[in-house]
Amino acid sequence: MRAIRVIGVGNPYRRDDGAGPAVIAGLRQRNLPSVELAECDGEPTRMIDLWSGADLAVVVDAVRSGAPPGTIHRRSLQHPGLGRVAGATSHAVDLGDAVALAAALDRLPTRMLLYLIEAGDTSAGVGLTPTVAAAVAELIEEIAEEVTWQATR
Amino acid sequence: MSHRNDRALTVGSLTRVEGEGAMHVRVVDGRVSDVRLQIYEPPRFFEGFLRRRGYTEPPDITARICGICPVAYQMSACLAIEDACGVRVDGPIADLRRLLYCGEWISSHALHIFLLHAPDFLGYPSVVELARDHRAIVERGLAIKKAGNAILETVGGRAIHPVNVRVGGFYRVPTRAEIAGLAAPVREALDAAIATVAWVAGFRFPDFEHDHELLALVEPGRYAVLDGALCTDRGLAFPVRSFEEHILEEQVPHSTALHASLAGRGRYLTGPLARYALSRAWLLPEAREAAEAAGLEPVCRNPFRSIVVRAVELVQALAEAIRLIDAYRPFTPAAVPVPARPAVGYGATEAPRGTLFHRYEIDENGSIVSARIVPPTSQNQAAIEDDLRRFVQDRLDLDDHRLTHECEQAIRNYDPCISCATHFLDLTVERT
After folding, report:
1. Which CATH class is domain B6-206+327-431?
2. Where are the domains of chain B?
3. ipTM above 0.85?
4. pLDDT tens digits, one per residue of A25-66
5. Is B251 exposed, middle or buried (0-12, 13-18, 19+ CB in 10 A)?
6. How far apart are CA B130 and CA B133, in angstroms?
7. Is the CB of B160 less than 8 angstroms away from the CB of A43?
8. Residue B388 CA from chain centroid, whole number
9. Which residues in chain A are contacts of B67 at CB distance < 8 A?
10. Hey, how many other C-beta atoms are within 10 angstroms of the C-beta on B258?
């Protein structure tokens, strides 16, 4: 059995920053067999604990790269040979640091898929903006299909 | 450079601190004329939106102020509301609260020591480069932190923003087996923490001392966390309910965080250095022995050595957690009744970064009339700015790049939580 984990990163109380947890909530309703789902605030040691030992880790996070809100960036990180990844967090260490730290400690999953949703509004409050909510709905379908296929390989 | 008349050092976005902030230092004719720790996160109005909420809601609402120290917010909130309602919670509920709080200290201190602060002393830009050269050390830090997270998850329901805390106690009491499961990782983490004290004590520290008045909760007989009176190293002592008579907050133009001072006395410092100075006598033997072996003086006034004090507190929290785990027996009820009554209540606890004060006024329907929250980082702002002023003044011969880097280090000594204070950091040094 392949260990597959999907990790939604973000803060649902900062509107579109909650995109990652919203994807996890959607996937939870699918009752996907043999897939572990987790929400995380992005704190790197927790991220590393969540993905280490996994054959496949899928990480969903909100970003601000300047692309139009709702844009989905898809990245595949094959260990080793990782590039820098910029997250939307304002915290002490971000997703890029978590990936780099895990690489230095040899605690990356065998394979990592990153889905980064461009945020529009990250002000205080709950609820996603409509364009980000649409991107979340699209990603729930896409990730459910991906992990179901990966689990049967 | 060093001989220019006008010099400005700026860090636009401070790294390895929690939240968003900046630093601006101006030097005119060889004197530091202005130091501003700029906190530009928007104010979050928590005190405003607690108004008219139910009196049982603050532990869950205020936990959201910080992802690093939610337990501190929950505990100060519970104590303040219970104080208003005339209920004192002790016995096994208080012990379980203390175990949960130990989990937060362990997790927060391990994060700061290994991931945020140690790279400064070893010449690495971040923990990533540190991990490439010293993998075992960083793994040690992660294992300690994980033990703290395990306590938070088991007692608090989950590691971030625990959900098992309520006014009067807990929603669910963990089973004996659940708590016993924490013993092995916590014991291993204690050994790792004792080794950590020796490791950080061997760092090279800049020669620098502060003279801030030190303020912390003091509970004779044990290292204060959840109880006690507020005391300073200069003899001031007052109960938690008199906090607002002794601590004044004022707005400063450059920051969205309020600056605090002791009435008639001025700036002060709260946090590990203050706690250690005031409560060292009540450290558990494991922590006291580690401090002595590391050569830590009874009062440490070098903020750069706060990493050693933090490591001693890590030992303290782990040693205490082991005692609480070994003594744990499930109990009922999980919470004591706390009926609402119209009154004002006060609560203060020792968050990892220092004293966290809450005050709530409740009406006869149990609705919150007013709320006040004073987090440690805003209390420490004046002290941090004073340190920077003196620190820069003595190091004006350094070039801007080096000086700026050392200033950032000086700020990280205090493990500032800008997210909490916003009510943090980019550095600007202007030299005229």
Report:
1. mainly alpha
2. 6-206+327-431
3. no
4. 999 999 888 899 999 888 888 899 999 999 999 999 998 888
5. exposed
6. 5
7. yes
8. 20
9. 11, 41, 43, 91
10. 19
